[in-house]
Design brief:
Blueprint lengths: L1 H25 L7 H19 L2 E6 L6 H8 L17 E5 L4 E6 L2 H11 L7 H6 L7 H13 L2 H4 E2 L2 E2 L1 H16 L8 E6 L7 H4 L2 H4 L2 E8 L8 E5 L8 H11 L4 E7 L6 H13 L5 E6 L8 H15 L8 E4 L1 H8 L6 H12 L1 H56 L3 H48 L5 H12 L8 H7 L1 H67 L17 H8 L18 H20 L8 H57 L8 H7 L5 H33 L1
Parallel strand pairs: 1-8, 1-9, 2-7, 9-10, 10-11
Antiparallel strand pairs: 2-8, 3-6, 3-7, 4-5
Helix pairs in contact: 1-2, 1-16, 1-25, 2-16, 3-14, 4-8, 6-8, 11-20, 12-20, 16-23, 16-25, 17-20, 17-23, 17-24, 18-20, 18-23, 19-20, 20-23, 21-23, 22-23
């Protein structure tokens, strides 16, 4: 990271030098110019963007693959809770800081109660009350009633697809953690910090589901490792987590990341769950910047040949998803133990000694670790950072060139007599009027283009989410209607627990399947669509800018020739091509983010479950009346028929709720994201073109007063301009040097 850090520092110093010229120019009597206000605003923006720019790396992989150990090794210490396994239920982010600190952001009471009410949908006995009265966990009676209701559930009702179902597990976690958390949580989101000696206390929250369920965000500040403070590394939940909500949370973070490291355990190799998750990433269109780490467990491999055979197999399987995958193979735990050698327990120290005696495997792991670090360094400094720095550098170069030009022109005019100076100014006014007119044309063109772009995007988004013409809602509805239930498997539960409890069990299974479908198929398709729209916005606006960039260049060339005809040397040079900042940078500048993937699982919030349960009750009565008139095929025939009608109503209610949810999402996407992005990209493009104009449309008429006014110290003015010229030359040289350094690191 040294290269990037030094280049960034140099860029900030150049920006400061450029800024120092404005007060000098404004101190010259009569030469203050509104132009400098625009340039100063640009410089302030560059300074803030460089300071705020965060590069994000997501560490992803299945449960128990060693993600936390790998991340700890990167930071050279035991900071992330290791072995948390399935209970790792929140993304844990880390950056370099001055001190060791953990910041925990807790949900508000409103958010907690909202979670609980959604989990209570179709819950026997309590679902109707949660809808009508609004469940509040702070009320003791409601906690007691809920605990009794959970205790009354049979084992079958608590398990979905072989694991504890997410709804009942979430309810149970909230209840179990309440007493320990009630003094922390409040009406607003609360941040709790654990610093220095108390740092490790944060692990109790992320490693315990009954506490983690109350968390909204976890961020660590770590005062060790090789990373710059502008790099964020996140330890994510297991990619094979059984809870679709956890997968949606990973998706939300992946959309913010610039690089992904996928960790695979050498104990298991690549599994079906890995293939499924990686296929999902591919659908999202974020597979380009991914590295794979085969985390070696030395105790699992008898020889280096055995390990190499596994690596070859993993590579072959990954190639089916990503051609020529970038794979590194080493032991994260071995690396971590080496970093902590002096602080290891006797048991771990003995393990390290044992591994170091396995010279061939240890040497292989060391070589691969070095190769991984070099590659990561390359990606950060040469791929991502060089792009960011280049964008800022070119904006500074435009301003520096403009200042150079402004200084040169004023120096030349100052050397003329008042008559000659006035003659030059008068002839420039016509040219500057044309350039101001061109600015208006560009602004009006971009505004008009924005309207047309928004019209097209509006139509595309409406078509994409349309229930008849689009695939998204059509496919969800087909999934809901086509979901099959084996009613025979529920006969015993219907007999033992009754209609409501059995319907709840079916709903939990149905919801788990639907949530999985949403995270695995629907969310990636939405992300892919949005990324296509983003790319089109950038390409279209760039295509509009192209002709105007040529017009600007022609106007500036004409201006330069005009100045030459007056015998006034112009330093105007052919500038670099205008390049928009990438979409991620623009979104970061204006604080724009996609509607969260987690939102797609919130459809239960609008389900009118009372109608479903009431419908089921009336159906039971109706069916039993009907059965009185004909022979009974089985004891449970009436209950099964009622259950089928109840499920039909449940599906209809789910379908209605999802259509409503996606209509809301569709409008949010348009007005809170896409249209704002169009405006931001257009403004950035206009600002970039405007910077080119500033030095050539400046009001130079005041210099005539300086030339003719004997009360003004022309000698002092000339000295100030000379001082500014020297600083400007230094700036130009430093910009050239930084550009060459970036170009060198890009090779």
């Amino acid at each position: 990271m040294d290269t990037y850090t030094s280049l960034k520092k140099e860029l900030l110093e150049i920006n400061q030098k450029v800024n120092s010229l404005f007060p000098k120019a404004q101190s010259i009597t009569g030469m203050a110019d509104h132009t400098f206000g625009d340039w100063q605003k640009t410089c302030s923006g560059i300074n803030k963007q460089i300071a705020d720019e965060i590069i994000r790396i997501a560490v992803v992989g299945p449960i128990k693959s060693g993600k936390s150990t790998f991340t700890n090794a990167l930071f050279k210490g035991d900071y992330f809770k290791r072995g948390a396994g399935v209970v790792t239920s929140i993304v844990t982010r880390a950056r370099r800081g001055e001190t060791l600190k953990a910041k925990l952001l807790f949900k508000s009471w409103i958010e907690i109660n909202s979670d609980i009410r959604q989990a209570l949908v179709m819950f026997p006995a309590l679902s109707r009350r949660s809808e009508n009265d609004g469940f509040d966990i702070r009320r003791k009676k409601e906690r007691t009633d809920l605990q009794k209701a959970i205790d009354a559930l049979s084992a079958e009702q608590l398990i979905t697809k072989g694991v504890l179902n997410a709804g009942s597990m979430q309810l149970s976690s909230y209840l179990k953690g309440y007493e320990r958390i009630k003094e922390i949580v409040s009406a607003d989101n609360v941040v709790q910090q654990y610093q220095d000696d108390r740092f490790t206390e944060y692990r109790a929250f992320v490693g315990d589901e009954t506490l983690a369920v109350y968390l909204k965000d976890v961020q660590l500040e770590i005062n060790s490792g090789v990373f710059d403070k502008d790099i964020e590394i996140a330890d994510c939940q297991g990619s094979d987590a059984p809870n679709p909500l956890h997968i949606a949370m990973i998706q939300d973070y992946l959309l913010l990341t610039h690089f992904i490291t996928y960790v695979i355990s050498s104990r298991t190799g690549l599994r079906e769950a890995d293939i499924k998750f990686l296929s999902m990433i591919k659908k999202m269109g974020i597979m380009d910047n991914i590295m794979f780490v085969v985390n070696c467990d030395f105790s699992e491999h008898e020889s280096i040949d055995d390990f190499n055979a596994l690596i070859k197999k993993v590579e072959e399987e990954l190639s089916l998803i990503k051609p020529e995958p970038e794979i590194y193979s080493f032991s994260a735990l071995y690396n971590l133990f080496k970093e902590q050698r002096s602080n290891l327990s006797p048991k771990d120290s003995s393990r390290l000694d044992q591994w170091e005696r396995e010279r061939e495997l240890a040497a292989f792991s060391d070589r691969e670790s070095s190769r991984f670090k070099e590659s990561l360094h390359h990606k950060l400094t040469r791929e991502r950072y060089s792009l960011l720095l280049k964008n800022h550098l070119e904006r500074l170069d435009v301003i520096a060139t403009g200042l150079d030009n402004w200084i040169s022109i004023n120096q030349n005019i100052l050397s003329k007599d008042a008559g000659s100076a006035n003659q030059i100014i008068e002839k420039l006014k016509h040219h500057q009027g044309s350039m101001n007119q061109m600015k208006s044309v560009i602004k009006n063109t971009l505004d008009g283009a924005n309207q047309k772009i928004e019209q097209k995007l509006r139509a595309d988004i409406d078509r994409f989410f349309d229930v008849r013409t689009g695939n998204i809602l059509k496919n969800i509805i087909e999934f809901i209607r086509g979901y099959q239930i084996s009613y025979h498997d529920h006969e015993e539960n219907l007999k033992q627990s009754g209609f409501s409890s059995t319907l709840y069990l079916i709903f939990q299974e149905f919801k788990h399947a639907l949530d999985s479908y949403m995270t695995e198929s629907v969310n990636p398709e939405i992300v892919r669509f949005i990324r296509q729209q983003e790319a089109w916005i950038g390409e279209h606006l760039n295509s509009i800018a192209g002709p105007y960039e040529l017009m600007v260049q022609d106007a500036l060339t004409e201006y330069s020739n005009l100045m030459d005809s007056f015998g006034v040397g112009s330093l105007q040079k052919r500038p670099q091509k205008i390049n928009l900042p990438d979409m991620d940078s623009i979104k970061s500048m204006i604080g724009l983010s996609l509607p969260p993937a987690v939102a797609s699982l919130r459809y239960t919030a609008r389900m009118q479950t009372e109608a479903v349960v009431r419908f089921g009750f009336y159906t039971v009565v109706k069916i039993f009346k009907r059965l009185i008139r004909k022979p009974v095929q089985s004891k449970n025939e009436g209950g099964i028929l009622a259950l089928k009608d109840g499920v039909l109503q449940m599906k209809r209610e789910t379908e209605r709720s999802i259509v409503y949810l996606f209509k809301d999402y569709q409008e949010n996407l348009k007005f809170q994201y896409i249209f704002k992005l169009v405006e931001a990209v257009s403004n950035k493009l206009y600002d970039a073109l405007l910077d080119r104009f500033q030095a050539y449309v400046a009001d130079l008429s005041n210099i005539v007063d300086i030339v003719s006014n004997k009360k003004i110290d022309k000698q002092r003015t000339s000295e100030l301009l000379k001082e500014m010229e020297l600083i400007s030359q230094e700036i130009s040289q430093r910009i050239t040097a930084v550009r060459e350094e970036i170009d060198t690191t890009d090779q």
